[in-house]
Amino acid sequence: MRPATLHRRPLASPRGPAKARRGHGTPHLSKTRFTSGLQCHRLLWWTVNEPTAPELETSAELEAVFDQGARVGELARTYIPGGELIDLPYSDMEGRVDATRAAIAAGERVIYEAAFRANGVFVSVDILHRTPRATGWTLTEVKSTTKVKTAHIPDAAVQTHVLRRVGLPVVRTELMHLNRACRHPDLSNLFTRADVSEEVATFLPEVPGEVNAQLTMLGRSTPPAVTTGRHCTSPYECPFLARCHGVEPSAPLDGEVVIRPGLRDALAELQAPVAHLDFETINPAIPVWPGCRPYDQIPVQFSVHVEPARRGGETRHFEWLAERADDPRPALARALVRALRGAGSIVVYSQPFEEGRLRELQEAVPDLAEELQSIIDRLFDLLPVMRAHVRHPGFEGHFSLKNVAPALVPHLRYDEMEIGDGGTASRTLEAMLLGPRLKAAENQRTRRALLSYCQQDTRATMGVLAWLRELA
Ligand code: SF4
Question: Domains in the chain and their CATH numbers?
Answer without folding.
Answer: 7-223+235-245 (3.90.320), 258-471 (3.30.420.10)
